[in-house]
Amino acid sequence: MLLEAKDTKTIGRIAKVVRQQQDLDQTTAGAFAGCGINFVSQFENGKPTVQLEKALNVLNALGIKVYLDIPDSASGDKLTELTGLLNHE
Prior knowledge:
elongated, mainly alpha
């Protein structure tokens, strides 16, 4: 399922619902993601200043994939090169 998330509150709510559907508490989800319960709580509550890397780790631990939908107008050699490099990792 694809969902558009325009703010941290929406992303946090989505993560919380997915975590609860997986029957995980915040402590366990945080352990899977390598962070603590305080971070998971702040993230789920939409704190706008959470660390991006940790947020991505939580999402990954929950099985939520993050994609960037780049506008066609932004295409170019540098972006094409970067895309090729990322696809080979």
